[in-house]
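Supplementary Note 3. Input sequence used for the single-chain structure prediction.
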Amino acid sequence: MAVSELEGYRQQFQLIAEQAQELTAGLSEARFNWRPASGQWSIEECLAHLILVGNQEISALEDAIRRGKERGITSSGPFSYGPVERYVLRLTEPPVRQPISAPRRFRPLHGQPVTAVMPTFLHMQSQLMRHAESAEGLDLRRVKVATPISRFLRLSLGAMFAQIAAHERRHLEQARRVRHQLP
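The predicted structure, written as C-alpha cells, is reproduced below.
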C-alpha cells in the first residue's frame, strides 16, 4: 500500500527532527553559535530562523485545517498543484540555486543556547506532524493557507506542507555546511 501524501509529510518532519538532533549532538554553546564568517549564520541561527518562520506557519496551518473541516472541503486525492506552487517549491528545495535573504522579521537573534533552541525546534516538528495527521481527509489542493512569506501568497494545504519541509531541509543543509567548517 502506498504511503499517503500526508503520511509522507509526517515522515519528513520526523526525519528532519532526527537530523537536527544528529547535527547538534555534542556541540558546545560556542560551536552551536559559531559563525563561519561575518554575515553568515551559525547552526543556532539556522534552527532559530526555522522556529520563527515555523511558528507562523503552524498558526496558518491550524486556521486552514479548522476552516477546511468546518466547510467540509474533503477529498481522498491524489492531488496536483499549480505552476506557482511548483515554482515556490523549486525555489525552496535544496540544493540552493538562488539565495534568498530572510525578511527582517525572520532573522534570528544570535547567541541563543542549544538547550533553548533544540527543544523548541523539536516541539515545532511534533506540532507539524500532528497537523499532517489532523488534515487527513481534507482536500489538500482546495484548502488554502496564508503564507508568512507574503500576505498576497496563499498556497494549497498540500503545497504548504511540502514547502515547510523543503524550507527546513534547505536550512538544515546550510547548518550541515557550518558544522563541517567548525574549527
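The CA atoms of residues 50 and 168 lie 7 Å apart. The beta strands are 144-146, 154-156.
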